[in-house]
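Chapter review: from sequence to fold.
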Amino acid sequence: MSDTLLEVKNVKKYFKLKSGIFSRRRGWVKAVDDVSFSVKKGETFGLVGESGCGKSTVSRVILRLTQANSGQIIFDGEDILKLSNKEMREKRRLMQMVFQKPFESLNPRVTIGDIIGSPFEIHKAASRKEKKRKVQELLAYVGLEPRYINRYPHEFSGGQRQRIGIARAIALRPKLIICDEPISALDVSIQAQILNLLKDMQKDFGLSYIFISHNLSVVKYMSNRIAVMYMGKIVEIASKEELYKNNKHPYTKALLSAIPIPDIDIKKERILLKGDLPSPINPPEGCRFRTRCEYAMRICAQSYPALMDVGNNHFVACHLYHEAIKSG
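The token string follows.
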């Protein structure tokens, strides 16, 4: 039996750009461009990159909140891009999301009992009496008082609201939870509590996570494997140990050089990228990173390098390594 829960294969998501009175198409934003990766059962797969690189679009495509243009998304052995809307609704019992801004993801007009209990109603998974009991159990599990069941979202702090969102996400015991910047809107004092809650949930329920963040230290703490994205493309995938100690792609090196070290006696050289981030409407030909890369070669402008295994399940999309293998 395969230990792979999710396979994303050559997925593309392009957004049309329109202008003028008649909304004529004037181009495409290639938000996700031929992205492939897999997530194992019980694993946390980290996804990092600059703002606008396509991380959140990947998550929305996986849940079919946004429809992919092409590719395959194999979840639990089934291509969900081929499912009808009714079939996808059933599949969503097993796929949930924790959002970045907890207050915006909670309906302010509805009590938290109804918010957490909504999955039971939508999927007809519990009677009214059972729903109340299960909601109270979920509140206790995420660290909130069961007696809060009739309160409204505005009566809670940011960290408590995120706990409510997490309780809703685990209500139907999903197999996969996508965490899209789940702590970036929270106070630093609360962030560690939420991360530890997510880790406890993973142990208790055997969950798999896709953990999306721009905070590289947090991703290292949470993840087993990490993928680095740049302008809609994955440029490197490796285990967290391999990525942080033996990173290959010039973009990954620059990203990791920005992580602060809590020791004033250690001096760390910061890699500063030259040039500006190219427009996603008109990305560079060939490798999209070449206009900011100090190692750019002629071939970098001619073709985009495929993800290549450089050993130890470490994949990198860079002509430096393609050329090294050819010459070596």
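Two observations follow directly from the output. The mean pLDDT is 90. The two ends are 38 Å apart (CA to CA).
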